[in-house]
Write a structure and sequence with these properties.
Layout (H helix, E strand, L loop, with lengths): L2 H15 L3 E6 L6 H9 L14 H4 L10 E8 L10 E2 L8 H18 L4 E4 L7 H7 L4 E2 L5 E2 L7 E8 L18 H5 L17 H6 L7 H7 L2 E3 L3 H4 L23 H4 L4 H8 L5
Parallel strand pairs: 3-8
Antiparallel strand pairs: 1-2, 2-7, 4-7, 5-6
């Protein structure tokens, strides 16, 4: 099967598997490698030491899969209205853990690719791949001034999965930047985590501090933390491109019932696990 026909077959398989966006980037691709390497050198990755291990691999898929010819990036819409609670959890973490769910979907697409003679490596936040830059290179959207991917239809609300493949597929055109003069995402950040447009200092980001950071929240950020207990959606929700966002069709992303925060403070580990096992929390 020729590349263009195979690509359309894979797009159909991805939509059937439950994805909402599909694109193909070439190998190599422009993934802002110089910025990434400087970001690591400047220590803006904080405690996320795995990002600094052989960072060249993250910008060059051929170092992961030597005969890689294409990078397929798929997106799943996860937006839903925030539930009314006395605390906030990031939207992506309201329901079931997306990692296993999206990986199962990727494997269904990989089965079609394997039948076509390809060798594949699928990842959902687990591999040495810069998902957002590759998604931009694959035409799913562009990286906004908050460094997040913005999709024309789904706004800032796509979970990403990536497949490295030896199949040579026609690439999609990269999406131009449509942020214009807008600075809403930068202006709304409670901790001023954006030193400049399109740059993020993770060490100041409340998502990083409540999820990836290994120690206590620094004193200077505790007032800004407010009622957030896991993640922060501020720079996502204010994006004007979310005006077309629709509620996710995946029921497993729907918000779970969680007790009031004051009650959870008295839990032991077993009680916490009983409530949150199977979620990203």
């Amino acid at each position: 099967m020729e590349g263009a026909a195979l690509k359309e077959r894979l797009r159909a398989a991805a939509l059937e598997a439950g994805f909402d966006a599909f694109g193909v980037a070439p190998v190599p691709a422009d993934v802002r490698a110089d910025y990434f390497h400087k970001w690591i050198k400047d220590g803006m990755h904080g405690d996320m030491t795995w990002l600094a291990r052989n960072p060249e691999r993250r910008t060059n898929p051929s170092q992961v899969l030597p005969e890689a010819r294409s990078v397929i990036v798929l997106g799943a819409n996860y937006w839903q209205p925030a539930p009314v609670r006395d605390f906030r959890i990031a939207t992506y973490a309201l329901g079931e853990d997306y990692h296993d769910l999206l990986l199962q979907r990727l494997e269904r697409v990989c089965a079609v690719m394997h039948a076509a003679g390809g060798a594949q490596k699928p990842y959902v936040d687990t591999g040495p791949v810069l998902e957002k830059p590759f998604a931009a290179a694959a035409g799913l959207g562009w990286q906004g001034k908050n460094t997040l991917l913005i999709h024309r239809k789904h706004g800032t609300w796509l979970l990403l999965g990536v497949i490295l493949t030896t199949l040579d597929l026609p690439p999609d055109a990269a999406e131009p930047d449509h942020c214009g003069s807008c600075t809403r995402c930068q202006d709304v950040c409670p901790t001023k985590a954006f030193p400049a447009p399109y740059q993020l200092d993770a060490r100041r980001c409340l998502s990083y501090l409540t999820i990836e950071h290994k120690g206590p929240i620094p004193l200077e950020f505790r007032e800004a933390l407010g009622d957030r207990v896991f993640g922060c959606d501020e720079c996502l929700t204010v994006c004007p491109w979310n005006r077309w966002a629709q509620v996710t069709r995946e029921q497993r992303f729907a918000a779970r019932d969680v007790p009031p925060l004051r009650e959870t403070l008295g839990w032991d580990q077993a009680a916490f696990d009983a409530c949150f096992t199977g979620t990203p929390d």
